[in-house]
TrEMBL record:
Residues 12-159 form the DAGKc domain. One of its GO terms (biological process) is negative regulation of apoptotic process. It comes from Sterrhoptilus dennistouni. GO terms for molecular function: ATP binding; sphingosine kinase activity. It is found in: Endomembrane system. Coiled coil: none annotated. InterPro entries: ATP-NAD_kinase_N, Diacylglycerol_kinase_cat_dom, Lipid_Phosphate_FormReg, NAD/diacylglycerol_kinase_sf. Pfam families: DAGK_cat. It is an enzyme of class 2 (transferase). Gene3D superfamilies: 2.60.200.40, Probable inorganic polyphosphate/atp-NAD kinase, domain 1. This is sphingosine kinase. Its EC number is 2.7.1.91. The gene is Sphk1.
Amino acid sequence: LSPPGDSYGVLPRPCRALVLLNPQSGSGRALDDFQAVVQPMLAEADITTTVFVTERAHHAHEKVRDEDLSQWDTLVVMSGDGLLFEVVNGLMERPDWKEAMKKPLCILPGGSGNALAASINYYAGYDHVAKKKLLTNCTFILCKGLYTQMDLVSLSTASGKRFFSFLGFGWGFISDVDIDSEKYRWLGSARFTLGTLQCLAKLRVYQGRLSYLPVAAEQGGSPAPRDAQAP
């Protein structure tokens, strides 16, 4: 969910929400924070919740891919950006993905990295905040019930896999920091600092090829893609 743009919708009242929650996200306080901060606010806003606590990787992916979603008005993700990534890609694997992707999505920050939640907080006009205050702000946005469309990025790999992202795709050093720091999840956002230091110490070399289409000199032109070597 996000603040109103050129066009926006409003959640019904009463509202039924499926909350997908990763209890291991961030420093492991997502479930406690949901019960202490989020649930009371949603109750006041006449939003009833069904809480689905994930037990393993890709659990949320499978849930939204296979579940009958008609019983809920919105899907709420209480975690970091990674769980929302699972949910988006699970929805896109459904036979009825065109309809499923019309279901409003909400992100409530509960992870180590909460980039989308922080962006929504900013565009809603709030001051830059983190942790409990960011969670409170994003929950308040959900309570107001305004939602609008959001762009997705599509990426197809050489192996034939296709992924969808709402932030961006990373390759090389940044991806290694994210992956290598996974074992330090208990540190919260500090895991990225430690992961960066470790990756700097290793200084891996990445080789790849980037192909791109330059801007056409004339409208209607179809320039051939150019290759650029990445050391």
